[in-house]
């Protein structure tokens, strides 16, 4: 399907449920997509960081993307992460994603190797030229250890290389500078880069990003409570900023589940992914809550902590005892 | 004077004008304070990073603080930065600041040495016990290379060690988590830490911070256009979020002056400080725009670029030629 | 072939020559392997960082490894890098490498995702259990942004998970602590971890590493002048430390070729790889000196600078003009 | 006294013993200096990082320096650290150090503020011009978060600004490149920068640094066992490299005391400083082993661990039980 221009709204990075053998649980993934569509989301981002793309083999990536696309059934666009170290490897993923019917591609700067702004520009331009799908740049310095410079994003937006930016840098000041440079909150959409979409991956400051002129959000926590992010988005679109902020605050509280797994036992990303996946199991969306190897599983106590957060948020019934 | 509880509003980190010998230009500094008070600011932060505190000798720090306090004349509270590597050295500054009549102290985590959360907690507790002034924690990882953990700040807020936080971490997600943990936008002020003030130092996302429940802002750019930050603050207080966002956007555009000095020639902090100080000279507030040694001066072209930004913002009359 | 225990000597990370289409130039790669074997190297490391493994598709990785193994013809062991983000993806590479006849595998800690010591330990243990080849840990924080803790390496050495360590961390102090903990320069080989090999990737301090008890070196510059690294190694083995240091010093001078490409134009890794590959072309070993996309090519001036370094080192005849 | 040219040998950064009130224990410091002189050291570095300079008030810095200088009694040169954020503040320390009879100054790049190579160069040139004492650059990125570029050090060495470099960067490859550029192990001393001294602060790889052509070492652990570092140095000077390496290996084992304090309780620098100071007390050199506030003290178990290391090294008699 053609992307809306600009791409906008709530576009969760879809978790990848796994079975007991560590393979993609397609039935659970299909249910998860329905859960998200029922929540009113505007798009789906398969094979992102929250999808544990870094832990999926090429075969598993294909299965996950195909499952999401099939379950989406053309109701919303499906973006596909094409995450790998450099252009030649990313291209292999991009061609597979195109074959599987992705509506847009999401690519990071090169990683593992050191890189350079001129190399990053060439990387995105080559991807765009080689595969005929809209291309979204994924700014995620925590993973790739390079921040996409606002000037570079702007240049690639204005020359038509990029259809959008997913900003997971956490640098809301730089995001504001980019939004302002691209025409600001009003005089859009987007002055010098028509149709360019700015999506924030900072799920704790979505009200702020929308107030600043962002078009949408890619929230990992949106797997757990998609309807709340849609309410937040709708409130913002209607100019009800305090209602949006109140929704955001509720989600910030819910987000605390990411600390369930102790730092002495696992990485912060494993704790967060484990919490989201445990929540999906507790909500009955998926069959299991396990994360991919070599991440460590949440303990029973940690899962109980996740459940407590779901009850506090009203997503599970209050416990009786 | 007693601090308002909580401390709130626009509290610029006051630039330190220098004379041709690199000494504090007290006449210019006095005029700058008046410029800020005329703009309607709610407090003054002397001896912060934007004050070039790291470049001022102890004697110069004393002169700068005394000048600011005298010029403020009790109209607004004066916060004093007590920036040094560890507790014993910070204490020396704190006692001098108390003697000079500061209304509150602003201290960072230890730096130069490596540190630890338990050492940081002891540091703030000892400062608070030793000098009888409200203490604000200054979270500025770009300078001290340690981020104050939200749990630590919360603990020190709740036990009364800290009267507030100045958050210059740029991590608006963490700030949101702290604000939510401390009672959120409503149920304040501040549930478990009554009177605790949260001030953002992120001058490009002030509307967002206020929407999230922050009490005020410490904007470097507020030296140049204090009235605009006051308008932004007032709009937010009145619930006019889109007006606040429009003011913010104008300030984001004005802020671009910080790139006037080229990266090949000077540090990013020198370029920003040079731009603010050049602007103050161009506005007729200070006599000179020079930064402290060993920072490199802005070129004539860079100063012309600053002037262009001032004209675009309507702070200088449009040029005729 | 069975690995010597411990693996030792000069084991260059073999560059991957490319043709004009960016495909592996197998004829040039075969000549490069002969050049290395003629230089007296003790092993070959295919698909390492210097091999531009991060830029090679899976198909290209297979061709490169097969070419190296065939050209090596069993004369020295061939180690294969299995570089990917996490265990499941690394396993795919490991199985292909085993099928292609690699004599050992070289794997990093997980990257792109954040990780944790316990996850890293599980990662290496699972790789070792799943593929029956000796496993070498590759400590390269510049690429993966995690340093392998000496205690962890020691634990995995002592329990037989690891056959060796390739230390490209640049942290020679930590390496010394590990060597000392594993029995030191004498009481080897290797006290609690019999046969464990410590290889340094720090090509500028090989004399130091050998003096400290390391078993060998994996020098990128060894592509250009393998015989010199063999001389260095032999001198050290014979206890002629000042001769070793003199060889090292000559190689440090030659290494300066890595700065040929200007920082304003390309990443530091692209400049280094470009210099090594330009040198191989100038020496007549390979047909072309190009690096993989999206790296930028060296300019003619930069190549001339590389040539100058080769002449100074006596690897090319002095120029006449 | 005039510095030897080049400055060379073992120059420990002298610990600063504290009394129960946290003040400089001058009697203990005097004994420590004698302990070091008895060990045969070639110089003393007061007010370095290991001296806890970042924790000492200006008054305490003066007392410590004066005590060291008096106790040294002209037998060896006394270098004084002048550690502060920027040039104007460093100058204040430099003038005091000159007044107190320091034989040379040791200064870092600016810190707290961001800086730039051109600002760093101006910083060192101004210090050298303003105070008539030999100036040593202190490269300690762990503390100041800037690495001194080898080209910059070389430029400042060749133009006479710097009398030497204390390299605590841990980057032995960069050090080797600098040494090679300055004439190498032989053709010294120092080709283009006559008399320039290269001192390593990497106390675990001193044999390597001396083999590479360094002139000396500034070892924190040298407080505990100065004689061993002098033996290492003498063996290296005599060309007995394996004897030097054996001494180094023994010191690497002794160095493990720095891990006595657990990471969950204190910073790594506090653990190391606490171990060195505990060792000095256990050896009877100083009266107390306490570190400066807000560092946390070693537990009794940690001190027992330090004692165990001293016994293993033969510095304390074996325990009888």
TrEMBL record, chains A, B, C, D:
InterPro entries for this protein: Aldolase_TIM, DapA-like, Schiff_base-form_aldolases_AS
Keywords: Lyase, Schiff base
Positions contributing to pyruvate binding: 50, 218
Catalytic machinery residues: 138, 166
One family name in Pfam for this protein: DHDPS
GO molecular function term, any single one: 4-hydroxy-tetrahydrodipicolinate synthase activity
Highest taxon, organism lineage: Bacteria
A GO BP annotation: small molecule metabolic process
Family: Belongs to the DapA family.
Listed name of the protein: Dihydrodipicolinate synthase family protein
Species name: Streptomyces sioyaensis
Lineage: Bacteria, Bacillati, Actinomycetota, Actinomycetes, Kitasatosporales
